[in-house]
Amino acid sequence: MSTQKLWYDKPAASWSEGFPVGNGRLAAIVYGGAEQEVWNITESTYWSGKKEHITSQSSGKDDLARLRQHFFDGDYEGGERLASQLLEPSKANFGTNLPVCDVILKFKAGGQNVTRELNLENAITKTTYEFEGAKIHRELFASHADGLIVCKLWSESPDGVSFNIHLEGKTDLFESWNEPQGEGRLSFKGQALEKLHSDGECGVRSQGSIHVETLGGIISGDAGWVEVSNAKEAIIYFAIDTDYGVTGDDWMSVGDKRNLLAKAKGYESLKLDHIADYSSLYDRASLELGTSEQTLLPTDERIHNVSQGKGEDPALFALFFQYGRYLTLCGAREDSPLPLHLQGIWNDDQACRMGWTCDYHIDINTQMNYYPTETTHLSESHQPLIRYIEQLAESGKAAARDFYGSEGWVAHTVSNAWGFTAPAWQNSWGLNVTGGLWIAMQLRDHYEYTLNEQFLSQTAYPILKDAALFFLDYMALHPQYGWLVTGPSISPENTFHANGTQVHHYLSMGTTLDQVLVSDLFEFVLESAEKLAVDEQLQADLKKAIALLPPLQIGQKGQLQEWLEDYVEAQPEHRHLSHLHSLFPAYRITPQHTPELSEAARVTLEARKSTNNHEDVEFTVAAFAGCYSRLHDGENAYEQISHLVGNLCFDNLLTFSKPGIGGAESPIYVADGNFGGTAAIADMLLQSHAGELHLLPALPSSWSSGQYRGLRARGALEVDVTWSEGRLVAASVRALTTGHTTLRYGEQTLPFNFEAGHSYSLDSELRIQ
């Protein structure tokens, strides 16, 4: 059996057991039932709410100066009261992504011996079961090439397959009907309306259709149902479109046209084109970590065994790694209209019905969705996020002007399909002044991995320059220290005690996350301006500002401080590790160059992990793994990855946030754990920051032998590595540009010059062959 398959010996009983499929815009969770099959349909642009101008109560710089004085004076209560008056706008019609509908197939007979699989190598799901001694088969895929979901059903019985199909909407205005042009056609329309995150009157409209065709048998239809009787085989085509970002009504017929074109093309051609389109990206990288007898078990049993510590299963971690790449390709293709949201491209109909919303959390979650994109060789999947950042940078100019009286642009904690950039409606979690900057630093990552000079000059530099202009104008000198600081701002969602009280405070000046992000921003914009030979005055301003930025602080307990002051942590168990951004995914802290700060980071990790009620949710555990990887601690990184896979994954290997976080009453799927875990695994095997290309930097003993192919490194490099018994055997480095780095393996280092178009083979001693 292929090691790149999820498989089960029973149908999915719930959303958390189904298979995710997607084409970058349209997606489904596929249950694989015998008596009844369900596809939970989602579409990335199907959002409630609308674009609105958010009104500020702040007059700009004067109010900001008055507000800051409270914090400089240590008056946190007064400062937070004033901030709530000035920087806490209404929620308005922010909205949320919503599920579209369920496609439900009901079969006239059930079946036994159900098996179902999701093949990551071709992105096709299959279900097989038996009825009266004959096998019945289904396979389904979401085609990016042709823009629809396709399912084929066939039977080895002479009686064929018999079923009926209908749709159940997830919003009030959803309706479906039979088309008079043919018995095998259903059309539907809906609107993304809800009243928790918007007024219930505004939202994206959708329209689409289902076409059913058969080989043999009878098709009939009435009252929103299509019925198939005794067909040798049947093919179902599902397509949808929305009015997001378009004018006029032409969009209404796009889904139906897709189905008509697909029928004319034929199932086998659709399938071949789907595989070719998908595999051209997926096959770029691979990972093998060894096998064991566990690989013969259904995936849910393997997950359970990891949680119980029963037997070694290195192949499950390789599967989890490739699953993250699969989910990236399902949710983010080069032409996707929007980036991955809190639940990727899927929607469990839970997060959108609670306070979280199924939106863009840009205080870590959306960023983490893209942590593995470059290193796992899926750079094109960054494009929808890059376009979205361009949208944020444009709409964020109004937020900068209206809330702070500054030039440039800013965005905060959350955003939506229309580029919301204002502070959110509750300062305790919503006044994260570097949220937009944090997501925009993905532009730096994309450039560092590709070295695309046109991208730097035309996209990354203009956007990040405007962000730098905002912070240069917005930041203030701390009257006590003389440092240039941000604020008032939060350290995402965390609180502290000050002035000897037990009050939970959330706003302060110069949080560690802010100073790290601003430092990275200023340095990158300065380097880019020098490279491009532009903006001499800006270069001078940045040099002055960089000299005034505060250094990272080590507290009395030896920890890396989360705030400029060594406050008492009000929530030492907190899920966010914002101050450790400097270690992972950023690289201001490294064991080689900043050993004292590295030790402070380790103290911070151990203290956070050791609390009795540690909030070890999915993104936290992925971040822990990444941080330990950066400390070259493979065993602790592996422990975190094992915890993520074994204890924070549903049976379908999707990660979840535990009950109790943000008011959740049950486990809620959050995509960042899958993507962050994939990134951490890649980081354990290859690092390429701080001027080094580091092979196997955090290899755990449980992965004693293995190989990977096609991982990407900064400097536009592609790397293959083989190892055995915990030792490097060989490596290959392919250069797409000309440059220089330092190769590292363990304590061995080697200066390495490379030329574009050349491939270099290395032995276990880093000797070039």
From TrEMBL:
What is one Gene Ontology biological process annotated in the Swiss-Prot or TrEMBL record? carbohydrate metabolic process
Question: What keyword terms does UniProt attach to this protein?
Answer: Hydrolase
Tell me the InterPro entries matching this sequence.
6-hairpin_glycosidase_sf, 6hp_glycosidase-like_sf, AFCA-like_C, Alpha-L-fucosidase, GH95_cat, GH95_N_dom
Domain Alpha fucosidase A-like C-terminal as annotated: residue spans: 687-748
- In the record, what terms sit under GO molecular function? alpha-L-fucosidase activity
Q: Where is the Glycosyl hydrolase family 95 catalytic domain?
A: 266-685
Query: Which superkingdom does the taxonomy of this entry point to?
Result: Bacteria
Pfam families in the cross-refs: Glyco_hyd_65N_2, Glyco_hydro_95_C, Glyco_hydro_95_cat
**Residues covered by the Glycosyl hydrolase family 95 N-terminal domain:** 6-244
PANTHER family according to UniProt: ALPHA-L-FUCOSIDASE 2
Q: What is this protein called?
A: Glycoside hydrolase family 95 protein
